[in-house]
Each structure stands twice: as structure tokens, then as C-alpha cells.
Amino acid sequence: MENNRLAQQFDLYTRWRQSIADVLGEYRRWLADKQLSDVQIEERIQQQLNRLREDKLNVAFVAEFSRGKSELINAIFFSGYGHRLLPSGAGRTTMCPTELRYDNGKPVSLSLLPIETSTHQISITEYRRTPQAWSVVEFDAHSRESMVEAFKEVSRTRRVTVEEAQSLGLYHPEQPDDAMLIGQDGLLEIPCWRYAVINFPHPLLKQGLVILDTPGLNAIGAEPELTMSMLPNAHAVLFILGADTGVTKSEMEVWRRYISGARWKQKGRMAVLNKIDGLWDPLKTDDEVETELYRQLQNTAELLGLPRDQILPTSAQKGLLAKVKGDQVLLQKSRLLQLERNLSDELIPAKQEIVRESIQGEIEDMMQQTRITLETRLQSVLDQTDELRCLQGKNEDVIAQMMRKVKQDKVNFEVGLQRYQALRSVFSVQSNQLFHHLGMPALKTKVRETRDTMMKAAFTKTMRQAMDDFFSDLKRRMMDADVHVLEIKKMMEAMYEKFSKEHGLLQKTPPPFSTSRYLKALNKLETIYRDQFNTTFNMIAHEKLTLTSKFFETLASHVILEYEAANRDTESWLKAVIAPMESQMREHHVQLKRRVESIKRIYQATDTLEERIADLEQVELSIRQQLAELDQLNGKAMFALAHEEVIVQAA
Question: What is the pTM of this model?
Fold first, then answer.
């Protein structure tokens, strides 16, 4: 395969993820060996390992037809095959959104979702869970003919009536450009497929790269899921323009509505000025050609509102040819290598930082919890050793008095244990109230009620009110949940402080948590709804049936996904809040029993003081050794997380 900069950086990024997974695996084995593991921490480690293993890097390519988008994908990622992997040529080649990825659990294949599914109230995300809805074409990844033949499917079209195209959301009578698509026979050409997924064992795809090939304005507008999640959540979006055409009116609309704007993150958004070979002119000097290209780049940057260095000129066709032929001069002239450099330098470090931020806090918290357990054990052993040393040279009465004191400590702890059980009950009630605000049944009921209201609505105002009420209710519930999170946090802080004073437990601040990130996601979805549909023009321009059955269903499915994520993360946080106290109470109880047993055996003369003190000193050494080993593991984890090899500016 080609050894380009993106491939090199991605390989380093994959090795970085693996280094963190290796440390987590070592930590898990160490916990088991030292009998420090429990179900809760095992679950948390597995969650982080799954996150690292399933991590994806999403790159979307967006362009109007005939801008060389598929050729650019071939040039950057697939030139090592010596031929075009994706169909590329004059006219429209990619007719439906096409996703390239690799899932080891599935056959090498092309999965195709029929365009007819657009009329159903089911999003692409939901269809992913319904394998029988897809047509599957398996192919041989080692056969050029097999791959080329299979990938032709993404270009397949059929001719339909205006009414059918309209019902599929692919024709809008009020748009003049759409009227021009009608042929002399009164029919329109539409794609056969709504969405395509190519499961292909390319090295980068196997490492977690996901490529989204998105056809023009009509295809984006007809599939709300692209605008709601796929494009906004992509780690990089490359908007491909033609150097010969500049930025057209329809491209400005694509940029403004679907890629730029306040609701999108601006990092990773780049424009590619393709087909610069069209400016190469043997009758002009190199300086004249460069001046013309510079002017085009400046104009593009001004129109799109992007910094000049985020407008990248290239010739995908010449770059692909140069790579296949091994022509270094042509490769440099195509400027493809510079595009790859910019993409990798922008994309990989940003993605690395996202993963680092999401995992570092979890690792630190887990290791801190283990440290608390060990320090609790150590303190108990030191206290026992001090008690026994105080008994050296004392008579039986003093030992009996110590026995009574330890037993009283045990009684006091049992009272504290009852208080803890009461706290556990209150915590359970509070948790249930928190989940009531985030309840999935209530959410699904609200979705159903809103859908029914919109379907029955006779006027635009009623539909708008239904959507406004929908989001208002969702956000209120999320804010109520956040208030409840704060109440639980304050209650647990107070209880940690109380148990610290009364029983010597190490005080621990509950980990931070807020539902604000989900509220932010809801606000983003609401912005999409308002931008695209909450105006009189758009409400009239889109049929009510299309709006309710497609846009709303897609929007609702993403709201449900956000609520499911909020429920999962809330459950994890609640476990993290109560687990240290449970662990310390359990450990304290075990150590108290050992203290009672130790003094009892001395009192009954079955052990000598010296023997017992020597045993405790060995236990102390063992615990200190475990703390040192934990420090080493923590150091390894922090070094792996901070390692910046991925973003070293390699030649």
C-alpha cells in the first residue's frame, strides 16, 4: 500500500491507542493478582478497552457532481491498488451516500439500502440494526474485476415518475433546478440506493478510519441524518470544489447550510480546490499559472470565510496517476502530498486529544480508587501494630481492656453500617428520581405524541408549536436531571465527610458529572430543526408527510440516542460515586474483624505479641510494595496518554 503521511500518522495513532490498552490490561491483571478487583472496576476497565478498540476516525467528502470527489478518495487512500477503487469519471458516479469502513465480524461486501426505505418512518441508524433490509453484494478484495463490478452498484439509477420522486424527497416542484431534471418522457433519474456501506479490509479502514462519500446538494437535503449527525460529527470534512469553476451558487448553499455555520465545529473543515491541472497551460509561464491559482484560492477563502491555509489546491487525477506510475515530479506538481500532510496534521492530533480527554479521567479515577483501598488497609495495619506494641510488657488486665475497646469500635462501626444502609436506601431513591427525568418510556411517549400532532396538523403554526413543545420538554427534563445530579453530589460529599470523621474513612470528592453535554446536543438538534424547517417558506416547501415521516423520525432517533447515552453515563457516574464508600466500608469491616481476632488470640495466649507484630509488619511491607507497583502502573498510563509521537512533524 502507499506509504503516505496520513497512513504513517494513522499507524502511530493506532499504536498509541494500543499502548494505552496494554497498560489497562496490565492494570487489570495486577488487580486480579492482588485480589483488589471487583465487578464495578472490572466493568469500567472493559468500557475503556472497548472505547479504544471501537474508536473510529470519520472523514467526510462533500461535493457537487463532477468535482472529482471519488477520484480524490482514490488518490489519497487507494492508489496502492494500482487502479481506481471507487467509480470515477465524467458525470455523476456516486449516486448515494457511500460509507467505507471495515468490520472484522462481517464479510468483505457492499451493503445497499434501497431508496424505497426513504418513505418509511425509520432512520439509517435504525436500519443498521436490521440486516435483512439491506441488499448485500460480496466481492473478492484481491480481484480488481470483482471490486470494480461490485462498486458499480453505487452508481446505479432508475427512472421514475415525478410523483414517486417527490414521495422519496428527491424532487421539489418549487425549485427550478429540479424541474430541469425531468426528461422528455416525463420521468426523472434517481439513485437505486439510499445508502451504501463498503466493508473493505484496507489497512487504514482496519485501524478505524471511516470514509463518507457524500454526493451533491439534493442527496444531502433528502437525507436528514447526514445533516444531523454524519457531517456535524465527522472529525474532518473535505469540501471539494473545481479550480475551473470556483464556488458556485449551489456550492455556497451546501457550505452554508450543511458544513459551515455556528452549529458546526470549525476544526477539521477544509476546502479542496481540485482539478488545478485545468489551469496548467503550456502557453503561460509557471508564475502566470501560479498567480491565477493564487487568485482563485484567495477568492475561495473569502467566499467560504475560511483561512487561506484551509483551502488546499490539488489535482486528484494527476496525483493518482503519479502514485500509480511512480512519477515523483508529477506527484509534486499535483500537490496531493501537501493536501495529505494538511489533512493528517489537522485530523490525527485533534482526534488523539479527544480520546485522551475521554479516557485519562477514567484511568486516574480508577487508580485513585485502588489507592484509597490500599491506603485504608495500610492505615488499619499501622493502627493494629501500634495497638499491639502498646501491649508489650502489659498484664492481662490491660489486654482485656484493649479487647473491650476494639469490641466497642466494632459496635460503633455496626451502628455506622446501619447508617450507611440508610444512606444506601436514600441514594437508591435519589437515583430512581434522577432516572425518572431521563426515562426512556416517557421520552418515547413524547415522540409518539409529537408525531401524531404533526400528522394531524392542518397548519404550519401547529407543526411548529408541536416541535417547539417537543424540544422544550426534552430540555426541561435534562435540566431537572442536572439539578438532581447536584443534590446527589452534595449528599454524598456530606456523607463522605461524616464517615471520615466518625470512622476514619478517607474522604473522597465525588467525580464531576453534568448532563450539560446532552443538553448541548439537544440544542444542536434544535438548531438544525429551526434552520431547516422552522420558517414559513420551508414549512410550505416541504410536504407535511415528508417532514413528519423522514425529518422528524431521523431527529427523534438521534434524540433517543442522546438520552440513551445520558442514561448509560449517569448509571456509570452513580456507580463511581458510591463505589469508593462501599469499598472502604467493606475494607474497614474486614480490618475490624481482624483486629478483634488478633487481640483475642493474644488474650487467649494462642499467639505471642511478637509473632503478631511481625506478621503485621510483613503485611505492611506487602501493602507498601503494592502502592509502589500502583505508582509504576499510574506512571506508565500517564506516559502512554501524554506520548506525542503521533503529532511529531515527520518528514
Answer: 0.76
